[in-house]
Design a protein that fits this description.
By secondary structure, the protein is α/β, with parallel strands linked by helices. It is built from 3 helices and 5 strands, in the order E-E-E-H-E-H-E-H. This is ATPase BadF/BadG/BcrA/BcrD type domain-containing protein.
Amino acid sequence: MAEYFLGLDIGSVSIKLALLEGDTLTAKAYLKNQGLIPTIQQGLKQIPQVKIRGVGVTGSGKEFVSSLVGGDYVDSEVISHMVATLREYPDARTIMDVGGGR
């Protein structure tokens, strides 16, 4: 039986969702943030309805959203960027994050 994991990146400008089956990206959604709850609800409608084993949340609204969705893992976007970059580019020495906050 497949194990699915959901990742949410809660930004001030946009909200991103990624559904993973193991290490494979199976679905994703990118939405303009028009309010946390309605935007997340809209994003969840864009991914397949499967049993999700775990939820990770990052971004500026991570604590609040994690409490809403029952997040299993919450971390800063800086740590998330570092882990993902070093996984894909192990020799990287610089990571730049240009956020949309005003």
